[in-house]
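Lab channel / #folding
Pinned by the channel admin:
"Please post every new chain as: sequence first, then the structure tokens as a reply. Keep commentary short and put observations after the output so the thread stays searchable."

First post following the new format, from NK:
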Amino acid sequence: MHIIICIDDDLGMAFNHRRQSQDGILRKRILEITSASKLWMSNYSGKQFAEEDQTNIIFDDDYLQKAAAGEFCFVELDDIAQYGASIEKLIIYRWNRHYPSDLKFTLDISDRELESSFEFEGSSHEKITEDILIR
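Reply from TO:
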């Protein structure tokens, strides 16, 4: 599976069981990247995609167990460390800020290779960094 995740500079993902941030331009980027595949996400994450074209999105709270090889999962509130062996590609969006967080990104990525990296301006963040890591 391919994981899409957003983190801050301190590897924070969420605070008080809520996403740290959301960004409309980032959502469009995610939909662009995943347009030819299924995009799995929790019902909670689906709330921020309510106004977007949802033809390839599957909302299911068991999405990490159900996604197949080559399919995408957008992760906000789940620790993905236990799925490390089945993650083929990891797309990390870095907010380039420090936010309060109580849920951290814990996956060891030391065995991953940086395939590409670029920065873009979001609607709520002046700089978002996209890093794509592969095995």
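NK: Residues 24-33 form the longest helix (10 residues).
TO: also worth noting, The chain has three helices and ten strands.
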